[in-house]
Amino acid sequence: MKSTNTKIIKTDALIIGAGPVGLFAVFELGLLGIKAHVIDILDKPGGQCAELYPEKPIYDIPGFPMITGQKLSDNLMQQIKPFNPIFHFSELAKTLTMIDDGLYELKTSSGLVFNAKIIIIAAGGGSFEPKKPPIKNIDRHEGQSVLYSIGKINDFVGKSIVIVGGGDSALDWTIALEKVAKDITLIHRRDKFKGAVSSVQKVMKLRDENKILFKIGQITEIIEIDNRLTGVVLESEEQKIKMDCDILMPFFGLTMNIGPLLDWGLKIDNKRIAVNTETFETNLPGVFAIGDINTYPGKLKLILSGFHESALMAHAAYKIVFPNENLVFQYTTSSSSLQKKLGIH
């Protein structure tokens, strides 16, 4: 599973993105005998799930009433182990061109060159950065007392936390951290939320039971003593108050950037790649897009949707990688050949 030092690398498939959808694409391709290399701009597999929310609970993965982002990534890495994918981390996909023999040539930020029969873009929303609140001096506390993502929940035991936002991240972390924090205050500019209905109900129940505080308004200042964050200033229509806290967590969403992909000739719709839902192929033959990076009528930005897209993509890719072979559909539960690939005896 280690990256190669070879500068020109030939492979059946090159997957851009090592998040859950990219990892499951390795599995679906592997079942069909398609070998894959995987590149990712991050330094480890798991994508946004592992990088930003490793301990965030996920509730809509089939078969798992609850699973964390890191555990899901770990399970997927275990699942694809029989197919020996080769990973190249801290690599940005830069240029894509078709070369004479029908292969695609992709170059990365470090100078690696891949020749691949098919390209699978599973880059989530592209590279991502948190949207930061316009608060004076906030940058010097980032990574210590101002956090835009969560590592280990146990790091927050006994802490006084202010969470700002009204989306899924703010709500989910309010629910998760309430169990370990000394106290939590959730702040949003209004009393309506953009998160999942079930999450809103849980947060309102915590508020009604006085397990958390909920306040309407905006954080306009941070309070410092000896260059250490000790609190924040909450401003609402009625008042301006100071609140003590150890940690400020603003969840205002992420700024997504698909970067060099804009120059590849792909059909782009609102910063997403348009695809054919029969195959999840883009307007470029042999280039597929799966997961949050793509768009089509009725698209749902869910991990489970990306898994479905991976399966259909793999069957379409087979016809390109093995143009003279007939693909016989098989089930892993009953196919001895598929079970052999998976190392099941």
Main attributes of the structure:
2 domains; FAD/NAD(P)-binding domain; 21 strands; about 350 residues; single chain
Overall body shape: elongated
Measured distance between first and last alpha carbons:
23 Å
In helices, the fraction of residues equals 10-25%
How many distinct beta strands?
21
Summarize the main sheet.
7 strands, mixed
Low-confidence stretches: none
CATH topology of the largest domain: FAD/NAD(P)-binding domain
SSE order, one letter for each helix or strand: EHEHEEHEEEEEEHEHEEEEEEEEEEHH
Number of helices: 7
User: Quaternary status of these chains?
Assistant: single chain
Structural topology:
Blueprint: E1 8-16, H1 20-31, E2 36-40, H2 47-51, E3 57-58, E4 67-68, H3 69-80, E5 86-89, E6 93-98, E7 104-108, E8 113-121, E9 127-130, E10 160-164, H4 168-177, E11 183-188, H5 197-208, E12 213-216, E13 218-225, E14 228-235, E15 240-244, E16 247-250, E17 254-257, E18 268-269, E19 272-274, E20 287-289, E21 294-295, H6 303-321, H7 336-341
Helix pairs in contact: 1-3, 1-6, 4-5
Describe the structure in your own words.
The chain is an alpha/beta fold. It has helices at 20-31, 47-51, 69-80, 168-177, 197-208, 303-321, 336-341; strands at 8-16, 36-40, 57-58, 67-68, 86-89, 93-98, 104-108, 113-121, 127-130, 160-164, 183-188, 213-216, 218-225, 228-235, 240-244, 247-250, 254-257, 268-269, 272-274, 287-289, 294-295. Strands 1, 2, 5, 6, 7, 8 and 20 form a seven-stranded mixed sheet that branches. Helix 1 (20-31) packs parallel to helix 3, helix 1 packs parallel to helix 6 and helix 4 (168-177) packs across helix 5 (197-208). The protein is elongated and about 70 Å long.
